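Much of the work behind modern protein science is quiet bookkeeping, done one molecule at a time. The fold becomes a row of whole numbers, each drawn from a learned catalogue of backbone shapes. The protein below has been through that process, and both of its lines are reproduced in full.
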Amino acid sequence: MYYYFSRYYFIQVSKLLISFGHVMSDIPTHPITPVPPPQQRPPRIPPQTTDGDTMERLFQALFYRLAIIYARAIPKHIRRLGESSILIMVFILEFLSQRKHFIEIIFF
């Protein structure tokens, strides 16, 4: 039993592994062909003027122009009355819509 853990055993095993080193080694014996580096493509740069960008700028300019015309042409108290009535109508319609769905869930 002592033989398996002795220094002699380790020396014999190491000699055996060294003698079969070419078989048990991870080092390949055939020449390795070099792999070419991957070709890098230049980054894709989008064109400077696209139709979407032009349409966005046109819409923004028209929107601001109409907002300024609306603010200057209609008096402040009429604007507040109209915008408040629209907001109240939205709340009422939302409430009725939720109530309709609630009633459908309960009774049907």
Remarks:
- The chain has four helices and no strands.
- The CA atoms of residues 59 and 65 lie 10 Å apart.
- The mean pLDDT is 76.
